[in-house]
Amino acid sequence: MYFPRLIEPIFRAYLQDFPAIFLMGPRQVGKSTFLAREMTEFRIFDLESPSLFQAIQDDPELFLKDHPQAIVLDEAQRWPALFDALRISLDRDPRPGRYILTGSASPLLNQRVSESLAGRIGLLTLRQISLREYLGAEKSDWLEVLNSMKTADQIFKWFGAHPKHAPRDAMNRHWFRGGYPDILLAESDSGAWRRQDSFFRFVVEKDIPMHASVPPARLNLLFKLLAHRHGQLFNASELGRELSLNYNTAQASVDLLEGTFHLYRLRPFFNNQSKRLVKSPKVYLTDSGLLHYLLGFRNHEDLLLSPYVGASWEGWVLQNLMADLDLLEPRPELYFWRTSAGAEVDLVIRHRGLLIPIEIKRKGTLGYRDVKGLAHFIEDHGSPFGLVLHGGEQLLRVSEKILAVPATWVLI
User: What angle, rounded to 10 degrees, do the helices at 31-38 and 8-17 form?
Assistant: First the structure.
């Protein structure tokens, strides 16, 4: 089963503007499938094929000369010498739409690749299947609508006129299994667990070690320690002590997981106000299914009985919001906000000059304590409204400027 990806029109637009595109994203997320289904005019070369690798390794410039356009180089970042030849080819012939490259690691992990790409290639990220894509829904313009209205009254009326309801079973399946296509489509939770187990072993034993010399046992422990810190402030010194590593090595290990798209660090929002603010990032695994595997859950019921259920829900909503916001130009900036006194907002979106503070709550019943951080942020920064994205099904007016919106109304 193929899920049409909402990045397709943006990808087409990039092909009109750049001679080459580098499509990044985690392993097994569907990059090759997307290109095979949507970019049929391109010929795909898998650079993990030994014979093709040898041909490129022997003379990358000759290979590009023999294939001057309309080709896909899959998992290209593993051979940095190719990028030097690509730089020369693109400088000689900058016509748009010549090459598509894919990779499961950010170019920032390899300085040689990063320098060769600079200014010559468009960068796009394909994430896991979002809930919106899983349900076959169309791209939403909810953030653009909020930006154009900018008052709580107007926004309340707009949400009330555009309710969206996801099938509960499908939503729970996506939340529990995450967005990797093969795992999401397994016939049972036990089958999904086996696929997740196989995928994780490949990641720690073969995939990540291709990019850096890190023992699989350390990677295994690192993933599990970070799973237990999902949605919490990141402390490299504390993590290093548990791994028996120094600060710099612990920091580099986390950089590696972020560079291979398994981890996301949400940066703190702060400005020039004198109020003391927390300035450490929060860490999230980028896929809810991987999180649940690392925490030892075998089914959705295990998750619901766990003390991690709230953090899991928060990360899953963020995972889907990020997939949505990737489709906007310019891309919104994402932060969280927390003061040293304990006031907190889970997510702050800055988009075209507007600051939108968002709390993410799984429960559908809300009290003053649930919106206290939003009220503080609105007062301090002059935001015209704040949102609570919750797991219930009712649109509510919590206060004059704070609206409680079912999360699915935004995610699909």
Answer: 80
